[in-house]
């Protein structure tokens, strides 16, 4: 078992069931995240999704980390980031059978997205039916202008590291 917490500092903390801190993560530095407002996982806890106050969704792959959390090579990888709403995301969940993420915002909209690519399918209340099979149409909601960003393997994650900066006066410098 693993507990996850999302924080106003954009930090995600993973805890053991005994209350020990296992890992601290920050979303990739190239994308603005802002305070995190919501998180969820898939049924097997291999995918972690977080939503932010600025309307962004971040997708993390935790599969290798959960296999052996003590192995440094088994990192949690941020795979995808997209702007889902122009305002705060207040709820989200992943529907694995259809490979869909559902997001809700304080603006009152509920939207559907492809879970692996961040492609926009539409919003609840639209006149047309959802077409969950066509992920090639690059459309966006009217209030969002950023396409999804797939985080490359070589991109460096911003993991919170414990660095000690002693406060010492160096008169020579």
Task: Summarize the structure in words.
This protein is mainly beta and about 170 residues long. It has a single domain (about 1-125), classed as YVTN repeat-like/Quinoprotein amine dehydrogenase (Methylamine Dehydrogenase, Chain H, 7 Propeller), CATH 2.130.10. It contains one helix and 13 strands; from the N terminus they run ββββββαβββββββ. The model is unreliable at about 155-165 (pLDDT under 50).
Strand-helix topology:
Blueprint (H helix, E strand, L loop, with lengths): L1 E5 L5 E5 L4 E6 L9 E6 L5 E6 L3 E6 L1 H5 L9 E7 L5 E7 L4 E6 L4 E5 L5 E4 L25 E2 L7 E2 L14
Antiparallel strand pairs: 1-2, 2-3, 3-13, 4-5, 5-6, 6-7, 7-12, 8-9, 9-10, 10-11
Calculate the mean pLDDT score and round it. 78
Number of domains: 1
N-to-C series of helices and strands: EEEEEEHEEEEEEE
Strand percentage: 35-45%
CATH-defined topology? Methylamine Dehydrogenase, Chain H
Q: So what's the CATH class?
A: Mainly Beta
Judged by helices, strands and strand pairing, the structural class is mainly beta
In helices, the fraction of residues equals under 10%
Shape field: globular
Largest sheet: 5 strands, antiparallel
CATH architecture: 7 Propeller
Low-confidence stretches: 154-163
Distance between the termini: 50 Å
Number of beta-strand segments: 13
Radius of gyration: 18 Å
Number of helical runs?
Answer: 1
CATH homology superfamily: YVTN repeat-like/Quinoprotein amine dehydrogenase
Organism: Rhodinocichla rosea
Domain IP5PC-F beta-propeller: 34-114
WD repeats: 82-118
Keywords: Repeat, WD repeat
């Amino acid at each position: 078992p693993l507990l996850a917490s999302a924080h106003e500092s954009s930090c995600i903390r993973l805890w053991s069931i005994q209350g020990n801190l296992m890992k601290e993560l920050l979303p990739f530095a190239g994308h603005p995240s802002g305070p995190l407002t919501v998180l969820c996982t898939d049924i097997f806890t291999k995918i972690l999704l977080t939503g932010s106050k600025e309307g962004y969704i971040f997708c993390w792959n935790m599969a290798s980390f959960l296999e052996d959390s003590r192995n440094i090579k088994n990192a949690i990888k941020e795979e995808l980031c997209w702007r889902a709403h122009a305002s705060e995301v207040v709820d989200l969940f992943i529907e694995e059978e259809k490979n869909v993420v559902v997001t809700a915002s304080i603006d009152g909209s509920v939207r559907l997205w492809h879970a692996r690519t961040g492609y926009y399918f539409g919003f609840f209340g639209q006149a047309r039916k959802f077409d969950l099979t066509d992920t090639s149409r690059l459309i966006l909601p009217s209030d969002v202008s950023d396409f999804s960003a797939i985080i490359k393997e070589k991109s460096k994650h911003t993991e919170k590291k414990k660095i000690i900066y002693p406060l010492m006066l160096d008169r020579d410098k």
